[in-house]
Amino acid sequence: MTHETTPATERPSLVPAGILVPFALVTSCFALWGFANDITNPMVKAFSKILLMSNFEGSLVQFAFYGGYFAMAFPAAMFIKRFSYKAGLLMGLSLYAGGALLFIPASLTMVFWPFLVAYFILTCGLSFLETSANPYVLSMGAEETATRRLNLSQSFNPIGSLLGMFTAQQLILAQLDDASRQAREVMDPQTLRQVTAHDLGVVRVPYVGIGLVILVMLVVIALTRMPRTENHGDHLDVGPTLRRLLANRRYVEGVIAQFFYVGAQIMCWTFIIHYGTELFMAQGMEEKAAEARSQGYNIVAMVIFCTSRFICTFLLRYISPGRLLMSLAIGGFALTLGTIFVPGMVGLYCLVGISACMSLMFPTIYGIALRGLGEDAKFGAAGLIMAILGGSVLPPLQGAITDLGQVGSLSAVRASFVLPLVCFVVVAVYGLRAYRSHA
Fold it and tell me: What is the DSSP letter of 410?
């Protein structure tokens, strides 16, 4: 006897064949904001050196960068609800390009705050992009495959991140003037001004380049027919929607978990340079060489992150999202303990290895939190993007700890990783609760 497979028993496709090109274009945006995120992380150290600031002052780059995500997420959601996901993508690309091109006047002033303004505008654009692209990808197919589909798109984010890290290392950090911070502090004003102008010019070039690339992408998406997977209308129903979201415990806890996850990610990637530089200088290496080698380990961490995300996307076919999220958060906790307490290169290897555990977290928390929300997902997405504020709030706290120099028997840099340690506990608890709910 033969049995025919009916459509009802077929496994739904990850991406419907008719929208592969729009899916690819939206997925490319994930790489574009990955570039912006990870060319920026090393700038904390760079601006601290160029403009002779403390680690805390330099980490205000992250405050402005991720503050833009927080400030614009809800307005972006209202804009998308009123118009469309495509309109949200176009607005995001416009602000992204505008912020990047503002590095031209900012570098000419040789003052820190215009750079913070440029970063803020740029990330207002990224907030539009992420608020649009993440739920758009979730909607491009069956709900059963939504989390896996988002993990696939998010897998291209670290590819952009790798390019951003490589650009930061080869086109910015390696091209800065060789003068150390100590040498700059004793320079005469005219020489210091010349060195500062040169270094800020080096910083400017890659941002202007990506701004021009974003303008090209803006035109391509504007001219492409994109699927309309949502209903639009003049009535936004903000109040009822927010009440429904706040009554959804899985969603609210997802926002909290996302806040702590993003904080952990940015802290681990930003301060890996401080961690490595301290380690290599203790071994007798010059500061610039130590920074360059540390950035190399940052790139290795991103390669691991990228590879792990593809692996985790495959594993989600067999393991529930909550269970896998919990397991990786426990792994991140254990590796962070090694980062703090294990001396020498092994501690650095633990810090690099944390990226393997983080790879799954953002899109999986996102997918779990938005599951079953329907039209409310547009505003729900805004809350999860606003949670990126964790990347604005927590790194300056870590920077303040590193400025202490020594915390008990530990160097302040090592001790500062107690903050990511706490973050992984929060993520593990959310994964456990999601797993129990799924079971």
Answer: E
**b vs e for 235-254, b when ≥16 Cβ sit within 10 Å of the residue's Cβ?**
eeeeeebeebbeebebbebb
User: What domains are defined for the chain?
Assistant: 18-438 (1.20.1250.20)
Span 275-314, pLDDT tens digits: 888 888 888 888 778 877 887 888 888 889 888 888 887 8
DSSP 57-115: HHTHHHHHHHHHHHHHHHHHHHHHHHS-HHHHHHHHHHHHHHHHHTHHHHHHHT-HHHH
Of the candidates 47, 34, 11, the residue with the CA atom closest to the CA atom of residue 309: 34
For residue 387, count CB atoms less than 10 angstroms from its CB and return exposed for 0-12, middle for 13-18, buried for 19 or more: buried
Digit-coded pLDDT (tens) for 191-235? 888 888 888 888 888 899 999 999 999 999 999 888 776 544 445
Whether 204 and 175 have beta carbons less than 8 Å apart is answered as: no
How far apart are alpha carbons 295 and 83 in whole angstroms?
41
pTM of the model: 0.72
In percent, the amount of the chain with pLDDT more than 90 equals 19
Cα–Cα distance for residue pair 32/9, rounded to 1 Å: 37
At 335, which amino acid appears? L
> Is 316's pLDDT higher than 50?
yes
Write the burial class of residue 177 (CB in 10 Å: 0-12 exposed, 13-18 middle, 19+ buried). middle
In degrees, to the nearest 5, what angle opens at C-alpha 208 toward C-alphas 202 and 214? 145
Distance CA 22, CA 141 (A): 12
d(CA 281, CA 290): 6
> Residue 429: left (phi > 0), alpha (psi -120 to 50), or beta?
alpha
Query: In which band, very low, low, confident or very high, does the pLDDT at 419 lie, cut at 50, 70 and 90?
Result: very high
71-81: burial string, b at 16+ Cβ within 10 Å, e else: bbbbebbebbb
Query: Six-digit token pair at 407?
Result: 């915390």
Please tell me the distance from the alpha carbon of residue 254 to that of residue 430, in angstroms, as a whole number.
Answer: 7
Among 141, 122, 112, smallest CA distance to 35 is for 122
Between 4 and 193, where is the model more confident?
193
